[in-house]
TrEMBL record:
Residues 1-153 form the Helicase ATP-binding domain. Signal peptide: none annotated. GO terms for molecular function: helicase activity; RNA binding. PANTHER family: ATP-DEPENDENT RNA HELICASE, ATP-DEPENDENT RNA HELICASE DHX29. This is Helicase ATP-binding domain-containing protein. SUPFAM superfamilies: P-loop containing nucleoside triphosphate hydrolases (SSF52540). InterPro entries: Helicase_ATP-bd, P-loop_NTPase.
Amino acid sequence: MLVTKLKETSSFSAGANAVNGMVVCTQPRRISAITLARRVNEELGCPDEPGGQHSLVGYQVRLDRAVSSSTRLLYCTAGVLLRKLQVEPEQHTVTHIVLDEVHERSVQSDFLLLLLRLLRRRRPDLHLLLMSATADCTKFSSYLGHCPVVSVPGRTHPVQSFYLEDVVEACGYTLNSGSSYGVEAAIEEADSLEKIEATQSECQVVPETSEGLDKSQYSARTLNTLNSMNQEKVNPQLIVKLLQHIE
């Protein structure tokens, strides 16, 4: 949303109206780059899909590219931007670079931050923005020459935690005898003594989820189900029960 608001600022408008001026926003994952490009493209009211001739938004990830001569806001991964810096180190056509989710550090993101720090010394006109909800802003600010920090207040919503035993109790789920999602079935699937021993140790219900429970809050059915359930295996039957209970 912050990138969307940049369109309303004079600095963004100046970059967009410049010859081939572009704002680049990096995302830690390719699916994030593509999804955000489509979302922002829709919010800007562009008639075309990202990368179209009548769209200001585009994206570029490995093996997939949607960019045109009209693109002024490009979403990409850190690897793509590193490649662009390798081909054109000065990036004269780029006016703003936004590093989103900067707290999700990797070798590529750290190396990219180093290159952009050096690029800023050669191109003081380049605007560099780092965005994160959990990063240590003081460290990043110090690394980039004590640049200013802008805090945007967010909204929090109350969250109530429900655990496996709560779900089993609420849904009335019972694990049938001989079920493929039980501990016995997991042991039978093992084809060697070593695998049997490993399966037994992995599938045993830990005391915190069975013996450690307050038995007054849970029925005998729930306790028996927890003791016989293979908690290392995803149980779609329980998921269906939960969805039916929520509806």
